[in-house]
Amino acid sequence: MYPTVAEVLALPVVRHGGPKVVAGADGLDGRVRWVHVAEVADIAHLLKGGELVLTTGIALPDDDAALTRYVDELAGVGVSGLVVELVRHWSDALPRALVEAAEKHRLPLVTLSRETRYVTVTEAVNGRIVDAQVAELRAAAQVHETFTELTVSGAEPHVVLREVARLTGQPVVLETLSHEVLAYDACGADPVELLADWQRRSRAVRVGERTAYDPPSGRLVTVVGARGHDWGRLVLQCGEQPPHRSVVVAERAASALAVHHLLAREGDSLERQAHRGVLERLLGTPAASAELVARAAALRVPLTGHRLVGAAIRPRLTGTANPPTANSAPALLRELAEATALATRRARVCALVASVDDTSVRALLSLSPQADTDAVLHRLAREIKQARQAAPLVIAVGTPVDSAADAGRSLVEAAHVAAAALHRDREPACGYHRLEDVRLRGLLHLLADDDRLAAFAARELGPLLSRDTASGSRLLPALRHFCEQGGNKSAAAAAAHTSRTAYYQQLARIEQVLGVPLEDPESMLSLHVALLVHDVLAQSRDGDHSTE
């Protein structure tokens, strides 16, 4: 907002006087808050600091001690410079004592070799300062209006950061107090360079105030929080001392983020949102970009040089005393995601954790190549179940991979395994399911998107489904009991809670409708596989919450 001494000396009205810097050249970048004409030596007590003092020197003393005291007093109140006209008092050069005192304080001391109209100088400089102040007030009003609107509308963090970048022209990062990057806007810069080695560099930036600039790192930092509960920091990458406007923008943005955090307590935390963004990119892109790898690393989850294991955690919703409704299911998954994240911290496992669909929580574990994968997974499964003791869970993992490009495959496999494992009563001793644990059902889940699978089930079971729909019979459940009991009619009748006579009649009608003998092992196997396919496809349509 204020011009520097050098900028003032470059103005045409000052250049006309032939300015020459005779001392304190190091201070030419100091800001000029005002231009003040003063002839008397006893002037310092009337100044506030930041003034550029203009004088002809006509009333200044010739005594060396008095001149030194004059400069000491001016430097003591923080004036930005002293300009002396070499016309009326001194004509060739300034007294040595005056020059040496100015050099000692690094106070710019400038001589003018020609008579200069000081009133013209003050009008030019002070007019420029006033214009800048008006522009700053207008900008401040715009900042206030912008962030008030964002606060009232409950804007998401990425929207707030986008406005910060637009108003300041600088990259901005929102991090937790433990220096995990929740959101950022690179403002046209290279995001990989911005996020590289973020935790180490950010930990080195310590400020004692809520908003402060750290010169060694070139970062403007403001604390984010409300009601005495600080939870993050907004970091503006400036490179040099930021203008006051940038400070105002950062503080208003921090307020908007704090309000959003308070209003969004019913939704996912910012940490879960950040994790979800990375997980969705891993699931949706065939290759992980350098930016995505940098984003994950900034969340303390390295994707390179580590073994990656996808995991899916699902609540068992069928058979519970109080099954969740459509409105309560998202809240259940949010609680499960936070419990899983807590379990990963307790198990000391680096992981991205978030719910990316309506049925499960996904996690991508990043393990050291030297780690015992089975031992880590066993410990993590135990921690997750301890965190959610009141809710039955299914924990499934995908095949470990060594490349970020394959992480999505491990995540998808884990989700299929979890869906298949929902219908298994037995749980592996290790506490989690793998693809080999769910066997045929797992394979069918992996192939669920293949239209040929649906066509096979329709051919095998179509007549039976049509008969049940038309007449209200329950032949399909009867067939299911028969296959699940391995063809044992007596056991199947007991499982169906039906008398043997009535159940045998149902089996006879099934053979008649389908035109196949149930006693034939191949027929029973084909029908059993068709039933499993039917279940898998029904789960895909219904969100895996119910079966036939």
TrEMBL record:
It comes from the Bacteria. Residues 7-129 form the Purine catabolism PurC-like domain. InterPro entries: CdaR-like_regulators, CdaR_GGDEF, PucR_C-HTH_dom, PucR_C-HTH_sf, PucR_dom. Residues 288-419 form the CdaR GGDEF-like domain. Residues 475-532 form the PucR C-terminal helix-turn-helix domain. Signal peptide: none annotated. PANTHER family: CARBOHYDRATE DIACID REGULATOR, DNA-BINDING TRANSCRIPTIONAL ACTIVATOR ADER. Belongs to the CdaR family. This is PucR family transcriptional regulator. It comes from Prauserella oleivorans.
